[in-house]
Write a structure and sequence with these properties.
It is a single chain. By secondary structure, the chain is an alpha+beta fold. 42% of the residues lie in helices and 22% in strands. It starts with a helix and ends with a helix.
């Protein structure tokens, strides 16, 4: 017999938003808002420009410069749409705990949650944090201009210590 309370129940946490092992917020873990990284967006745009020029340079001798232009513009549009989709998938918030890292989108969806893996890479202006989620791994890119400098250094230290495991 179904009661009124059972039919009005909210969906469980495992409905795709938050993994059951990681509740939406851990007590004491700071939630850090990420700014949009201008440097990373410029690099993506420059890479797309170089790839578009390479496509046009490759097609022009075979088709002619003007006949290669529509295919080159189609490639540019497709690459631009892919870059826009990638930008929308980037995390907007990081939750950093003593033994875990979680990344959240603007709409509250959990993109990655787990502990840092030893495959994490760090540099002067970019961190590639590999987050282990059981048997799965997710990579989070964090640019130095997206977070405060002190937080960036702290994440770099955690990535280095995870690489030592």
């Amino acid at each position: 017999m179904i009661t009124h309370d059972e039919t009005a129940a909210a969906p469980s946490a495992s409905a795709g938003r938050v993994p059951p092992a990681f509740p939406s917020r851990r007590a004491g873990a700071p939630l850090l808002a990420l700014r949009s990284s201008v440097a990373l967006q410029l690099l993506v745009a420059a890479g797309l420009g170089v790839a578009t020029a390479a496509v046009h340079t490759t097609l022009a001798p075979w088709l002619g410069a003007w006949q290669a232009l529509p295919l080159t513009l189609a490639f540019l549009a497709t690459g631009g749409l892919a870059a826009a989709a990638w930008r929308r998938k980037q995390p907007a918030y990081l939750e950093i705990g003593s033994d875990f890292v979680a990344a959240w989108s603007r709409d509250g969806a959990c993109l990655a949650a787990g502990r840092l893996a030893g495959a994490s890479q760090w540099g002067a202006w970019l961190l590639a944090l590999v987050v282990e989620q059981g048997a799965r791994r997710a990579t989070i890119l964090v640019a130095a201009d997206a977070i405060p400098a002190e937080t960036f250094r702290m994440l770099a230290v955690r990535a280095r210590s995870a690489a030592g495991r």
